[in-house]
Each structure stands twice: as C-alpha cells, then as structure tokens.
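REQUEST FORM: STRUCTURE PREDICTION
Request ID: SP-0412
Submitted by: Lab K.M.
Chain count: 1
Length (residues): 70
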Amino acid sequence: MTIFPFQINEVVQLYNKVSKIKPSVLEQDRKEPQDIKELQDLVNISAEAKRKQILDQTKREVLERIREIK
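STATUS: Completed
RESULT:
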C-alpha cells in the first residue's frame, strides 16, 4: 500500500482539528441528537451513465433468462 505525503498531511490536520475540540462539547452533542440535522447524500446520474446502467441490467436479465431455459 502506498501512502502519499498529502494523505498524511490531511490526517494530521484532522487530528489537530479534533484534538482542539473540548470533550464537554462532544458530550453535549451526543446528549442532544434532535439538534443534529440529518445529512442527505445527493447523487446525480448523467444521462449516459443511466443509459449504460439500464443496458447492463437488461443484459443481466436476458442472460439469466437464457440460463434458465437451458
């Protein structure tokens, strides 16, 4: 496995950021989950990717049907 210098730098920066947070703040966040807004992942699929996905799914279904017949 190769680890690049920029990856090490990102981990160190994150560690420094988290280490500066007071433990009481972290505990307070755990006690009040209703205040935390739910994050939603948004995925946009391009028309070409959707077309390819439909073609792949169709190929799989046709192959399954052919195999069932044999």
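NOTES: The mean pLDDT is 78.
Reviewed by: T.R.
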